[in-house]
Amino acid sequence: MWQPNKLEEERLEKVRRLEERGVATYPARVERTHTTAAAVAAFESLEEHNADAASALRVTVCGRIRRVNLKGKVSFMHIEDGTGRVQLFLRINELGEATYSLVKEGLIDMDDFVQASGTMMRTRAGEVSVLVDELKLLSKSLSPLPVIKQAVQDDGSVVEFGEFSDPESRYRQRYADLAVNRDVREVFIKRAQIIRAIRHFFDSEGFLEVETPILQPLYGGASARPFVTHHNQLHQDLYLRISFELYLKRLLVGGYDAVYEIGRDFRNEGVSWKHNPEFTMAEFYKAYIDYNDVMDITERLLLCVAEEVLGGTTFTYQGDEIDLKAPWPRITVREAIKAETGIDYMAHPDAESLEAAIGESGESVAPGQTWGKLIEHLLGKFVEPKLIQPTFIIDYPRDISPFAKAVEYDDVHVERFEFYIAGMEMGNAFTELNDPRDQEARFIEMAQWYRTGDDDETPLDEDYLRAMRFGMPPNGGWGMGVDRLVMLLTDRRSIRDVLLFPHLREQK
RNA sequence: GGCCGUGUGGCGCAAUGGUAGCGCAGCUGACUUUUAAUCAGUUGGUUGUAGGUUCGAAUCCUACCACGGUCACCA
Question: How many structural domains does chain A have?
C-alpha cells in the first residue's frame, strides 16, 4: 500500500489544484510533430541557409521535464524524450498568463511529461530552443525522481552533480535508474545492438534461426541444477532448460546444416557478479565442421560484433586494453595448467594422485572429486583469471565433457574448447559427439560418476539417443554467454548491470 | 551457506557514547535570454527491523532483513 511521503503529498496537492482549474492531468491525445532531436536538427539545417525560415519553423515536441529554471516572467525547461533533450523557452508574452501561471506556480514541474508547441529559436546564450506558445500537461509525476544536475564543460564533456547510485534501489527500481541515468539507458541500447549483430552474423553465414522448448520434460546439455515446474492438466513435471544443446542437435538429424538460437537459459545455482539464475545464451551447431572451424567462426563472430557495435576491434575492459584481432592463441588445458601451476596432470592419471599433487603444491580441494573436476578446478582457479586477451583453451578431460568427441588416439581428452576474455569464461564448444553408442556410454558414465554428488546429475535422454541413431552428421557446436559479452563491450563489472531486471531476493 | 563491509530526510553524504547536521531536490518570495541560474527565507528524520548494555545509543552488544564484496558452489 502506497504511503505518500511529504514530496508526494505536495504533488498530489498539485494534481488537485490542476484538476480544479480544469487541466487534464493524464490526457489521452498527443500531437507530436518532431522528436527533440529532429526539432533541433531541422532548425540547425535551416539556419545555415535561411535564418528567417529557421525561426519560422513550427514544432510540437513532447518529453519529460528534466530541468526547470523559473525566472519571473520568463522560464526555461529542458524536456527529454528517447532521442535527446531540447530547451523550452517559456515567456508570459507568448504563453499567456493562464498557462504561464501553471508553470510559475510549479503546478507543472520536474519529471512531468509535457507537450510544447512553438517556433524554433536560439537564445542569447546560443542554445537551440522552442519558443513555446502552447504548453500541455501530458502526464503528472507523483513521485519525484532523484535529482541529477549536469554541467557541460568547455571541452563538451558533461559533469554530473548528485547521483542515484545505491545499487539496490537502482536494480529494484530500474525504471527510475533508466529515467535518471543516461549511461544506463545506453548500456541497454548497446545490448540490443550486440544481439542484433550476432543475428546478422549467423544469418549472413547461412545459419537458420530456430526456437526450441524452454519447458522440457528432461533437461540436459550442461551440468547444472534445473528449475522444476509443473503442468497441471498433464500432471507432468517440467524443467526450465539449462541449455539448448540437445534440441539443436536433433535438428541436424532433421536435415538442417546449420542452426542457431539466442534465448534464455535457467540455472538453479548461486548468483554472483557473473551469474544470474536466468541469462541469455547463444548456441549454434553446424554440420561438416569440427572444433577448429568453430574457433575460426568464434574469432570472426566477435570481430564482426565489435566492428558493428564499437566500430573497432579494441576496447578497454575495467582498465585492461583488449584486442580481438585474430588469431587468438590456442593452448591445451594441459599446457595451460602446467604453465601456471607446474602440475602436469598426465603424470597423475587418477583422482587420488592428482589430489595429492595439488595438496603438495599447498592447495586444498574438496575431497572426492573426479579427475576431470580437479582439472577444471585448477583451470578455473589458476588459469582463467590470467586470460585477459582472447584465448582458446582446448582439449578437455573426457569425464567432464559428455557431449564432445574424443581426440584421436587419445583416450583421456576430447575435442572441446572454452574461450576466455578479460579473465572471464565466455563460451564453450566441441566437435560434437555423433556416435549413438558412445553417447549412450557417456550418459551411463556420467550417471555413475555423479550419482554420489546427486546435484548435477546428467539424465539419460532416450529420445536424444533415438534421434542420433538415425544418423547425425559430424558437426561442431558452440555456446556463448551473451550477457558476459555485453559486460565486456559496455565495460560493466557485474552481470546485473547488463540485465534490465536482475534477480534480487524478495523484499519483505 | 561461511567470512568481511554497508544501511542516517526523496537523492548524495556528515556526525564514534552527550541537543542528528550539510548539499541537491521541495516549499514561500524576488527576477523577461537562463543553463549546476542567482538572491532571501523555510519545511522535512522513531538513524533497516527487534531486543539488550548505559544516566544517556546513529555510534557499543545480540539476532534478524536487505544490498555489496569475497570464499564455497557453479563445464
Answer: 2
